[in-house]
Amino acid sequence: MASLANAHLLAPPPLALSLEGTQSLNLQSTRARVPCHPLPSSFLTSSSRSRRSAHGRPGVVCGGLAIGEETSATVAVEVEVKAPVLPFRVGHGFDLHRLESNLPLIIGGVNIPHDRGCEAHSDGDVLMHCIVDAILGALGLPDIGQLFPDNDPKWKGSASHVFMTEAVRRMHEAGYTIGNLDATIILQRPKLSPHKAAIKANLCELLKAAPEAINIKAKTHEKVDSLGENRSVACHTVVLLMRA
Ligand code: MG
């Protein structure tokens, strides 16, 4: 068992970093109760307060480490946790749609000539849906399905630039802008390379981003599974937001 003299070497990161708990970019504090082990009061931050239970003793450090000699004590600590304002935020998006006959195939706002298209409540733009989720994820907001439910008639047949515009509005409202975005579309056929420039132009306009900040990749699925059999289309996106 570690001695108190070495406890500082084992102490976890500052509580404010290890216990981030808010889902909002607003700097609203939240309370967290965490299991703790006893340590001298000098280890407490000014923003934390210890409370003894019937068996506990004052002075704690948190993070699940067995430090000190009184590990049987049941001391709890209440800490004020604030989400840090980060200069950058990263988000990931994924989306997949079934491909069915006699439906339009719209990717990045471009109508791609094909013998089948996306089955969806909206226009089924897999790339835009994916980007929306990446931005919302970076902001710590609910996902696209929560903001625009597919059982809401309001969004029936909706063009997906509506969702993009709302995601970008929320991004700007939170004080962020696009740093860069990298997307990979998985589609067995047709080839997307002839349409990449038009797709990128649409995205740059909607995202208020420079062309150098947007990268669109496309690949097949090697004829494997529904993607490879051209029965579905999928997309992955990673986005980096930066403080405006
Ligand atoms: Mg979708």
Helix content: 10-25%
Uncertain spans = 1-29, 36-72
Shape label: globular
The secondary-structure element order is: HHEEEEEEEEHHHEHEHE
Major sheet description: 5 strands, mixed
**Could you tell me the radius of gyration in angstroms?**
24 Å
- What percent strand? 25-35%
Class derived from helix and strand content:
alpha+beta
The bound ligands are: magnesium ion
The residue-averaged pLDDT reads 80
Number of strands: 11
Summarize the structure.
The chain has 244 residues and is α+β, with helices and mostly antiparallel strands. The protein is built from seven helices and eleven strands.
Q: What does this protein look like?
A:
- With 244 residues, this protein is α+β, with helices and mostly antiparallel strands.
- Helices cover 23% and strands 31% of the residues.
- A hairpin with a 2-residue loop joins β6 (105-107) and β7 (110-112).
- α3 runs parallel beside α5 (161-173).
- It starts with 6 loop residues before the first helix and ends with a strand.
- The site of magnesium ion has 5 residues, from β5 and α3.
- Magnesium ion binds at residues 95, 97, 120, 126, 129.
Note the main attributes of this structure:
single chain, 244 residues, alpha+beta, four-stranded antiparallel beta sheet, disordered N terminus, binds magnesium ion
List the helices and strands and how they pair.
Elements: H1 7-10, H2 15-18, E1 30-38, E2 48-51, E3 60-62, E4 75-81, E5 88-101, E6 105-107, E7 110-112, E8 116-118, H3 126-139, H4 144-147, H5 161-173, E9 176-186, H6 196-207, E10 214-219, H7 225-228, E11 232-243
Helix pairs in contact: 3-5
Magnesium ion binds at residues 95, 97, 120, 126, 129.
